[in-house]
Design brief:
Blueprint lengths: L2 E2 L7 E5 L2 E6 L2 E6 L10 H17 L3 H7 L9 H12 L1 E4 L2 E4 L15 E7 L4 E7 L12 E8 L4 E5 L9 E5 L7 E9 L10 E7 L2
Antiparallel strand pairs: 1-2, 2-3, 3-4, 5-6, 7-8, 8-11, 9-10, 9-12, 12-13
């Protein structure tokens, strides 16, 4: 509601219909109210919103891990933002508005440390996922003491489990308990991180597995 301070010929303050009145340095003024037009995103903007929401469901449960294994590339951004940027460009398939994540193309770790050779993941009883790999210590900066990073993501529940201490590179095997996802499929990955924590590898996809 507007208030007239100096009679009918004076200025007013507040709102009257679509007009706002006020005073600045003793001078009365009037201006029209800003329009509250409803924002309608373009197809391109909506496309990006759909991709972003899709990836957030995948990456958010891995936030703690991504802070570590994407930090080398996270210049002026967080690890999850860097992971989001990379996977937006490389792991989304389909056409608007039906997008999907190609989990085989996604990265959950990114770095210059060599990954192991020929990694596999095998589903065992009791919800135990067993990873195996070939030791390649001494190749580049790979060392026997590098630790396996084991990751499993459940799309149905939008939850993940992971460890950054899944077994030394020279041990050739490591286990991940995925029993919370019994009856659901999990998407699985392996990467390696140096004993110092200062270097890590790109992740490798080790398949989709039904947890039993």
């Amino acid at each position: 509601m507007g208030i007239i301070k100096k009679g009918i010929l004076g200025g007013f303050s507040g709102k009257v219909g679509s007009v706002i009145g006020g005073a600045w340095k003793g001078i009365d003024y009037m201006r029209s109210r800003a329009s509250r037009g409803k924002f309608v995103p373009t197809e391109s903007q909506h496309s990006q919103q759909l991709k972003f929401a899709l990836l957030m469901g995948f990456l958010q449960p891995l936030t703690g891990l991504l802070r570590i294994v994407f930090r080398d590339f996270a210049v002026k951004m967080t690890g999850i933002n860097n992971a989001m940027s990379w996977n937006l460009k490389n792991a989304i398939t389909g056409t608007y508005p039906s997008f999907q994540i190609d989990y085989s193309l996604a990265l959950v770790s990114r770095g210059d440390l060599p990954n192991a050779l020929g990694p596999t993941a095998t589903m065992g009883l009791g919800g135990l996922l067993t990873y195996a790999w070939t030791d390649n210590s001494g190749i580049g900066i790979a060392k026997a003491t590098d630790q396996a990073v084991l990751v499993a993501y459940c799309p149905d529940l939008k939850q993940a489990v992971y460890t950054t201490a899944g077994g030394r590179r020279d041990i050739l095997t490591g286990d991940l308990d995925v029993s919370p996802f019994t009856g659901h499929e999990v998407q699985t990955y392996i990467a390696f991180i140096a004993e110092t924590g200062k270097n890590n590898s790109n992740s490798l996809y080790t398949g989709s597995h039904l947890v039993s």
